[in-house]
Amino acid sequence: MSDAKPEPQLEEIREAECLEVLAGNRLGRIAIVVGGQPLIFPVNYALSGRIIVFRTAAGSKLFNAPEARVAFEIDGYDEQTGVGWSVMVQGIAHDATESYDDISWAAHAVLPRPMAPGPKPYQVAIEPTSITGRRFSGPGSD
Amino acid sequence: MDEPRSGQLEILDETECVKLLRSHDLGRIAVVDQNVRPLIFPVNYFFDEMVVAFRTAPGAKLRLAPGAHVSFEIDGWNANKGIGWSVLVKGIAHDITHPRGAPSGRIRFWPVRPAAPGSREHWVGIQANEITGRRFHSEPQRFVARES
User: Fold this and answer.
1) Do B42 and A118 make contact, defined as CB atoms within 8 angstroms?
2) N or C terminus of chain A: which is more exposed, having fewer CB within 10 Å?
3) Where along chain A do its domains lie?
4) pTM
5) Cβ distance of A82 and B115 shorter than 8 Å
6) What CATH number should be reported for the domain whose range is A10-137?
């Protein structure tokens, strides 16, 4: 093993930078809990302020439950530089389709573009309770 | 693999899902905390024998996953072809750091290579009890008047 091995680093990403990263991407994954079982779905999203917005075929059934706690995640890895990162938003999902509260109003200001086909009549807004991120570089774990 | 027609959403059978799981090494695990809040973490993994194996350091994944129902997901998007896909594995996670039998002992020799640095001496295996997948060919983006 070479002495010149770069120092591995793992750092937290501050919320302001997490929001910049969120604004610069459009594909993420949402996790919801159904009957104690977490489920993960990829979604195309848009960011409105601190609110994550996406469209879905599954509306009120999944996302209008009071306290519908969800997690949303994006990540990336550059094989050339060995830099990897991830951002996780934890929060409450609201069905914003026909609502006009502050969260829904913010959600209506952006237009997420789903790449998957089929009707997606419901607009869901995730009101964040926490936004965290981490970034690493250097050689991976042995 | 045949390519789905534009605008079509296609269900992938388990054989195809397994093929995709075997040919990738980065996915995401979802776990649930004590307040029924989900969390998602990216992990490097290796898949074989219906088990998703990954390595981790002490933290939320190690605290919440073993013995619990979890989900694991991989996905991909080919912008040139407009084809997207995802595979979801549902199962129960087990801490296999100290193997008790032949299957978990074998898994410890799998090539699980975390891209993230640091000591990741704990091994977790997700025993799959359901594997589902879907693939779509994107519809051409329609003109939207609101974005004129």
Assistant:
1) no
2) N
3) 10-137
4) 0.90
5) yes
6) 2.30.110.10
Chain B hits for A72, Cβ within 8 Å: 40
A77-86, A118-127, A133-142, B120-129: range with lowest mean pLDDT: A133-142
Please identify among residues 70-129 of chain A the ones whose CB lies closer than 8 Å to any CB of chain B: 70-73, 75, 77, 82, 84, 86, 88, 90, 111, 113, 115-118
B12 with B134: CB under 8 angstroms?
yes
User: Cβ separation of B115 and A117 shorter than 8 Å?
Assistant: no
B61 interfaces chain A, CB cutoff of 8 Å: no
Q: Is the pLDDT of residue B77 over 70?
A: yes
Report the complex ipTM: 0.88
Residue in chain B lying closest to A114 (CA)? B138
Q: Which residue has the tokens 């610069």?
A: A24
In a domain, B32, yes or no: yes
Q: How confident is the model at residue B17 (pLDDT cuts 50, 70, 90)?
A: very high
pLDDT band at B143 (very low <50, low <70, confident <90, very high): very low
B14 and B90 Cβ atoms separated by less than 8 Å? no
Question: Which CATH number fits the domain that encloses residue B96?
Answer: 2.30.110.10
